[in-house]
């Protein structure tokens, strides 16, 4: 899903889908280099020839050659969550009404609303332009997390931003539908009806195979075919190897705690004692 989000970033990041976006010099340079590298690759040039022609290092050429889309190499500004975030919409609307309002005035207003931060944080937040315009498009990783999370567990703000983002890109919206359909396969009752669950799994795989907009998801579906019988059984039957995996994880933890300090005999005793205590 993250690969698909990266591939369609130009679609959902552009509010005027299809028009040229305003980008910084770094993003423009990345797009230009990516186009140049892939043009030479299509002409049959080797990595060494591309290095000499474009005056790039070998690792840089490898990086650009491995990226199918330029968006995979372009990273927008990454901001961490701050105490100002809950008041962003208020600040945006307030500055739209009075563009020259003093930051000190805004500080007093949001403090009355419950803001617990200081003036420096607010000055930096506004200086970075984080209260300007609508919410910036989410990063591919954040968008992936929203799509793969149970909608009931998203906050109202996250649900609104997810819906707004997907509306900008119909292709990505279709892929998100596949993800939710697969989640429905995993969360249905394990009633033992193998034939019914197998049919539903096969229908999902066939539907993904016909979608040309999701090559990464199609690759995932092909991987399911390799273990088709096991996947179908996992959907239909109530059995789980979770307890076994839990024991294995505990053994690995005990092993790491004494790594290089003791031998097998102590590890064996700790494992047996841990199992006895757990029982």
Automatic annotation (TrEMBL):
Annotated region described as Disordered, given as residue ranges: 1-31
PROSITE patterns: HTH_IS21
Pfam families: DDE_Tnp_ISL3 (PF01610)
Residue ranges constituting the HTH IS21-type domain according to the UniProt record: 32-95
Protein name: Transposase
């Amino acid at each position: 899903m993250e690969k698909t989000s990266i591939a369609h970033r130009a679609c959902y990041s552009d509010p005027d889908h299809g028009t040229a976006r305003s980008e910084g010099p770094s993003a423009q340079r990345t797009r230009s280099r990516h186009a140049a590298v892939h043009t030479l690759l299509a002409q049959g040039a080797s990595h060494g020839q591309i290095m000499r022609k474009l005056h790039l290092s070998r690792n840089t050429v490898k990086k650009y050659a491995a990226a199918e889309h330029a968006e995979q190499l372009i990273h927008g500004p990454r901001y961490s969550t701050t105490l100002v975030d809950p008041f962003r919409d208020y600040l945006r609307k307030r500055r739209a009404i009075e563009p020259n309002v003093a930051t000190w005035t805004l500080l007093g207003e949001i403090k009355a609303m419950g803001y617990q931060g200081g003036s420096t944080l607010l000055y930096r937040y506004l200086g970075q332009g984080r209260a300007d315009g609508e919410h910036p498009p989410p990063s591919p990783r954040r968008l992936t997390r929203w799509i793969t999370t149970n909608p009931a567990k998203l906050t109202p703000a996250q649900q609104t931003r997810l819906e707004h983002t997907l509306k900008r890109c119909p292709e990505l919206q279709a892929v998100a539908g596949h993800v939710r359909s697969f989640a429905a396969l995993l969360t249905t009752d394990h009633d033992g009806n193998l034939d019914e669950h197998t049919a539903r799994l096969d229908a999902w795989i066939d539907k993904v195979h016909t979608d040309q907009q999701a090559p990464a998801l199609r690759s995932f579906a092909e991987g399911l075919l390799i273990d088709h019988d096991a996947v179908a059984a996992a959907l239909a039957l109530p059995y789980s190897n979770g307890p076994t995996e839990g024991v294995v994880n505990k053994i690995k933890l005990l092993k790491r705690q004494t790594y290089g300090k003791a031998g097998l005999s102590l590890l064996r005793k700790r494992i047996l004692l841990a199992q006895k205590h757990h029982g």
